[in-house]
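The data are quoted verbatim here:
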Amino acid sequence: MTLLERYNIDTYGLNAVVIGASNIVGRPMSMELLLAGCTTTVTHRLQKTCAIMSKTPTC
């Protein structure tokens, strides 16, 4: 979130895909993005559709 704020990237209303739901990075990041107004999707790191989902422009 610090990088997004530093470069003045407005995340409100964007779609975000978080690949991986670890307690250290994935889940906290998804919550930060939700609080910033993103529509957030969390996928398992081994899910086969991750490559497709991550190619769409998101925050």
Q: What stands out?
A: Residues 2-53 form a domain with the Rossmann fold fold (CATH 3.40.50.720). The beta strands are 15-19, 39-43. The chain has a mean pLDDT of 83. DSSP finds three helices and two strands in the chain.
